[in-house]
Every structure is written in C-alpha cells, then in structure tokens.
Amino acid sequence: MSDEVEAAAAAAEAYQNSDKDGAGPSTVFDKILSGEWSSDKVYEDDEAFAFRDISPQAPTHILVIPKKRDGLTQLSNAREDQKALLGHLIYVAQEIGAKE
C-alpha cells in the first residue's frame, strides 16, 4: 500500500473514531465548550453558550450555540425533537441583543 493510501485510511479511521454523534469530528465550537480553546463568554445556561466572535463582522457579533451538539452542526440537520432547543437559542440571542 502506498503512503498516500495509508494516510487516507488513517484519516478515515480517525474521522470515524471522532464521530460520537454522527456529525463528524470535534469542531471549533466543541473545543470552546470543552475549555480547550478560550472564549469571551457573554451568556451560559444549561442549554446555551454565547460568546463574542474573535473576528467580528459587525460592532456587536455574538455567537449563540447549543451546549450539546447532538448532531446539530448546521440548521439543516435540525430534528423535530430539537425545536424547543432552537427556540431557546433564538430567545437567548434576542435577550443578549437587547442588552448589547
């Protein structure tokens, strides 16, 4: 087997091993939530975490993310059982926006 094929096989195995919720390996957001990467926290509760963007595109640029990924890495992955969580994230964003 060539080095390139071996490298691809190793990368595929690492990807599969890191895929605990069916959504792929750890993201930047997972690293922020785990504390591996620092963030400027604005808000936190049992379901949501909000922090300032490190490269803001507006005077106020805050990201609100779910604390448990549960496959929700993009809105198109949302399931019906996540409607309450999505509503909560929007509500949190609105509350933060009103204070900023």
What does this structure look like?
This protein is α+β, with helices and mostly antiparallel strands and 100 residues long. The mean pLDDT is 87. The protein has 3 helices and 3 strands. The protein has helices at 3-18, 28-34, 83-99, and strands at 41-44, 48-52, 62-66. A 3-stranded antiparallel β-sheet has the order 1-2-3, covered by helices on one side. The longest helix is centred in the last third of the chain and has 17 residues, at 83-99. The radius of gyration is 17 Å and the shape is globular. It is 40% helix and 14% strand.
Helix content: 40-55%
Give me the count of strands: 3
- Please report the number of helical segments: 3
The main pleated sheet reads as: 3 strands, antiparallel
Run of helices and strands: HHEEEH
Mean pLDDT: 87
Q: Main sheet: which strands, in order across?
A: 1-2-3
Low-confidence stretches: none
The Rg value, from CA coordinates, equals: 17 Å
